[in-house]
Design goal:
Elements: H1 8-14, H2 19-40, H3 42-49, H4 64-78, E1 82-87, E2 104-112, E3 123-131, E4 149-155, E5 159-164, E6 170-175, E7 180-185, E8 196-198, H5 212-221, E9 225-226, H6 232-242, E10 245-248, H7 261-274, E11 278-280, E12 300-303, H8 305-314
Parallel strand pairs: 1-2, 8-9, 8-10
Antiparallel strand pairs: 2-3, 3-4, 4-5, 5-6, 6-7, 10-12, 11-12
Helix pairs in contact: 2-4
Bound molecules: 2,5-anhydro-1,6-di-O-phosphono-D-mannitol and magnesium ion.
2,5-anhydro-1,6-di-O-phosphono-D-mannitol (AHM) is lined by residues 109, 112-115, 200, 230-232, 235, 248, 258.
């Protein structure tokens, strides 16, 4: 079912998503609605924060990425469906008291691109859900293709939830009047080929992967243009909708690049592939990489079929 305007829970029910997974996704979407409301007034929070570091409600003013993390931890710990939580903001995973019988583990980046908060540029929350297998930290270290759901919420001019439960990609827009995520993009399919490349080209001198500079040069000759926001959620969102390529490669200083496998690369790779694109670390499909630790970094190349195939031919 893909009736425009239907709300998230109804959509999941109608698509026969298992009840525990519906609860899991609902708890994430509820936490993200709260984060969206904080992001919307981020500038004000700073002004209010100056008076003794408490806001008008008498609450302590926190940095927004810490706040986003606290909100997610609280909501997801209460939801009973998550046996474990791993966050980019926390050194170790959390195993909530109420999640002892939980069927899933979730990994998330609470507020990706948070260096962009000060300049009012789109940022987001990224999440990845795996099934509980052993009931240990090992459960977070499953390959990306084993995700049962992945998605992100982008806090932009509108707040959107982009989601895959393994049968395509759908998008919901937060309706400020009803406070509900309503289906706005029933089937997100990437074009076979795009016109945009998205990479921090200031690092070009440092890139250590042979063939990458040549690849970018080829795209320029083919008439591609560059768009780079520096906020992965925003850059991937554009790539998902318009096609092209987003990359964060390794370089001489950062041998594994910058982005994290669990919280950023794997969920985005899942969405990109579910929308018909390809995702690689330059050597293998990102979804086949078995993580060795929860905070592991990886080079990332995500995009349309044409660009990723072309890249893989040139990389040495
Ligand atoms: P963060 O998780 O600390 O916010 O860092 C990740 C962000 C991504 O959103 C973005 O793709 C990347 O960092 C940009 O890095 P750079 O400024 O080096 O181009
Ligand atoms: Mg991040």
């Amino acid at each position: 079912m893909s009736t425009l305007g239907v709300n998230l829970s109804h959509f999941l029910l109608k698509n026969d998503v298992e009840p525990a997974l519906i609860s899991a996704i609902e708890s994430i979407s509820n936490a993200c609605k709260i984060i969206a409301s904080k992001v919307r007034v981020a500038g004000l929070a700073d002004i209010l924060g100056k008076a003794g570091k408490t806001n008008v409600q008498g609450e302590e003013v926190q940095k927004l990425d810490e706040l986003a993390n606290d909100i997610l931890v609280e909501y997801l710990s209460e939801s009973k469906v998550f046996y474990g939580l791993a966050s980019e903001e926390l050194d170790e995973p959390i195993f909530p008291e109420k999640g002892k019988e939980g069927e899933f583990v979730v990994s998330f980046d609470p507020l990706d691109g948070s260096s962009n908060i000060d300049v009012n540029v789109s940022i987001g929350t990224i999440f990845s859900i795996h099934r509980r297998v052993n009931g240990t930290v090992e459960d977070f270290l499953q390959e990306g293709y084993k995700q049962v759901a992945a998605g992100y919420v982008i806090y932009g001019p509108s707040t959107m939830l982009i989601l895959s439960v393994g049968n395509g990609v759908v998008g919901f827009t937060l309706d400020p009047d009803t406070g509900m995520f309503l289906l706005s993009h029933p089937e997100i399919k990437m074009p076979e080929k795009g016109k945009i490349y998205s990479i921090n080209e200031a690092n070009a001198e440092k890139w250590d992967r042979e063939g990458l500079r040549e690849f970018i040069q080829t795209l320029k000759q083919e008439g591609y243009t560059l768009r780079y926001i520096g906020s992965m959620v925003a850059d991937v969102h554009r790539t998902l909708i318009k096609g092209g390529i987003f990359a964060y490669p390794s370089d001489k200083k950062n041998k594994n690049g910058k982005l994290r496998l669990l919280y950023e690369a794997a969920p985005m790779a899942f969405l990109i592939e579910q929308a018909g694109g390809l995702a690689t670390n330059g050597n293998e499909n990102l979804l086949k990489v078995k993580p060795e630790n929860i905070h592991q970094r990886t080079p990332v190349y995500l995009g349309s079929q044409k660009e990723i195939k072309q890249l893989l031919e040139l990389l040495r």
